[in-house]
Amino acid sequence: MVYSMKIWQSISLITWLLAPFSLLFWLVSKVRVWLYRKNLLKSYRSPVPVVIVGNISVGGNGKTPVVVWLVEQLQQRGVKVGVISRGYGAKASNFPQLVSLDSFAEQIGDEPLLIHQRTSAPVAISPNRQQSIELLLNQYPLDIIIADDGLQHYALQRDIEWVVVDGKRRFGNGFVLPAGGLRELPSRLEQVQAVICNGGIAKSGEHLMTLSPDMAVNLKTGERKSLSTFPQAVAMAGIGYPPRFFTMLTNLGINLTACYSFADHQPYSFAQLAPLATDLPLLMTEKDAVKCRAFAQENWWFAPVSAHFSEKSTACLLAPILALVEKKQYE
């Protein structure tokens, strides 16, 4: 995946060789969307509003921190929120399934577990989003559903769509899969209610999001301390774009003697990670940590990050959602 993402950032001979397949991918996608719009393919309308937080490109754009931020913001305003996720990489034997604090990332997916641990919001996973929504509404009196990913899952009707864009990589070479890393063309952004720019420089109409680390948390003991107390460390990241995590740590003044990149959603084992750092602390992302707690060592730490928006963007992003919830409550 990392190698593919490098190719997708520029146009080369490989790009043109794959271009016919990208054209086919684009045509199939357009036909599929048309079939849903004409009701020739069935779609599901939730009895409560649905907000989708997704992206148009492959790879880590910072979608999960946005979901966590949105859930927390709504909870602070008294809104009862539930979250649905496909549960990418989940090996559960049955779907849909509720996520609990006792769940294992290998069974229900790393991102759903992270969201539940951070927000305590009810989270359900299933490739069938309708099943997840029905399970949540059967168990909880919810005002709204947040869909973690699923922008291209047109079998689920939605009230609001947010797209998260990497502010530095943007849209790569501009091609859809497989010649490029796009699932849909940038023109799709004209149809969504909000475009969130993760880092870099936000373009006109976009909402700039910054990600900042809270503290370092010890996987084994739960101890919390400032990242500034780590003069040297080894870092690892199994996310969509690992360099973002490494850059964040070095910008904090941490001397990283080694950086290890893993595939997004990759499962881990003690034998695999133990050799990475012996004398030095091992720093990882929160997403990695949910998969490593069972065999964590005393010098393993994770750095949870939080999303931040300007006061203006916060008000602009939340206003339509709160209006939807209020309208639904008075129906």
UniProtKB/TrEMBL annotation:
The lineage of its organism: Bacteria, Pseudomonadati, Pseudomonadota, Gammaproteobacteria, Pasteurellales. It comes from the Bacteria. Pfam families: LpxK. Pathway: Glycolipid biosynthesis; lipid IV(A) biosynthesis; lipid IV(A) from (3R)-3-hydroxytetradecanoyl-[acyl-carrier-protein] and UDP-N-acetyl-alpha-D-glucosamine: step 6/6. The keyword Chloroplast does not apply. One of its GO terms (cellular component) is plasma membrane. Its EC number is 2.7.1.130. Transfers the gamma-phosphate of ATP to the 4'-position of a tetraacyldisaccharide 1-phosphate intermediate (termed DS-1-P) to form tetraacyldisaccharide 1,4'-bis-phosphate (lipid IVA). Keywords: ATP-binding, Kinase, Lipid A biosynthesis, Lipid biosynthesis, Lipid metabolism, Membrane, Nucleotide-binding, Transferase, Transmembrane, Transmembrane helix. It catalyses: a lipid A disaccharide + ATP = a lipid IVA + ADP + H(+). It comes from Nicoletella semolina. The keyword Transcription regulation does not apply. This is Tetraacyldisaccharide 4'-kinase. The chain crosses the membrane at residues 6-28. GO terms for biological process: lipid A biosynthetic process; lipopolysaccharide core region biosynthetic process. Belongs to the LpxK family. One of its GO terms (molecular function) is ATP binding. ATP binds at residues 57-64.
